[in-house]
Amino acid sequence: xxxxxxxxxxxxxxxxxxxxxxxxxxxxxxxxxxxxxxxxxxxxxxxxxxxxxxxxxxxxxxxxxxxxxxxxxxxxxxxxxxxxxxxxxxxxxxxxxxxxxxxxxxxxxxxxxxxxxxxxxxxxxxxxxxxxxxxxxxxxxxxxxxxxxxxxxxxxxxxxxxxxxxxxxxxxxxxxxxxxxxxxxxxxxxxxxxxxxxxxxxxxxxxxxxxxxxxxxxxxxxxxxxxxxxxxxxxxxxxxxxxxxxxxxxxxxxxxxxxxxxxxxxxxxxxxxxxxxxxxxxxxxxxxxxxxxxxxxxxxxxxxxxxxxxxxxxxxxxxxxxxxxxxxxxxxxxxxxxxxxxxxxxxxxxxxxxxxxxxxxxxxxxxxxxxxxxxxxxxxxxxxxxxxxxxxxxxxxxxxxxxxxxxxxxxxx
Length: 413
Ligand code: PLP
Known about the structure:
binds pyridoxal-5'-phosphate; alpha/beta; 7-stranded mixed sheet; globular
């Protein structure tokens, strides 16, 4: 049985071209980038080249790209690093905007990935305040809600670009534009700048992520969601954004992330970013650029959705269909347990999931679907299907047949 993988939001296979670039750095070019001799120089040159590559694709400065061990770490660095630094550095704060106790206010959403929500909870435990913006039934925040929640001591807005469970795309560019205006006024009145962070882990494959275009200060990305290796991530940090490291030591990565750099993975990450953004697109994409790849995947995704609703009148899509990543479907099959469906589909060779793969192996209830107003029962009827650049027309045809057959068999009569 040839298995069909439809869980690309959980992770992606490493692209052949990425793997090829990584391999020499495991064995032949194994030097420590901090060593002075030629082995070290070879390794640091590979890191420099990788950083340069990403900086060029992001239209930013070389020193604004920081390599980390995962997107989870990047999100932690953005959130904790900024808050910690502003807490210490009295010179960066205006007396008017922050109380003597240095407690800050942060704005985020109810549908962030756990790697944003958990650091925010830690900050709350330390006495800072966090506003979690709600979403509407389409899975989208309202910019007016965000504007209303800004306070004098707000220092950070962290909003996920595209959601990992329902694929909905938040208006990051519009928020960036609005913040630019708000920050100008704050500067005039002596208030602290509000920094803007986005978790672009799921977005990078499909959406424009150049920081200047988005008007963003901090942007998180991950290797394994873009056909690169697992266990490597990155973050764009705009010049003069006051971050403290969360991992200290030898001072690598401009002092923001100590520890001997993972050279092969950094090389792999840079190649994966290049393939995601540039015209080439990698080994499985037939030379399609990002736009063409998105169109290709969108077409398959729409075919699958049409086919599913044709045979399952009770199937409902969770979240907006229009403001959504082209590869994502999150479907509720009325009366059918997602646990049963996922297991039955897996036995039939089709891999889908119940939502976030990162939480745990158990099918925990989704905070994202809950924020959208779904009942516990509806949440337990929802499955996530995500396509990728390796997905073929034949796979989608076959998957639709099997899904429809199994849903019919398991649905209450
Ligand atoms: N942010 C989002 C939106 C994700 O989907 C994930 C992974 O599922 C992460 C962050 C964490 O990425 P990593 O596995 O690189 O830590």
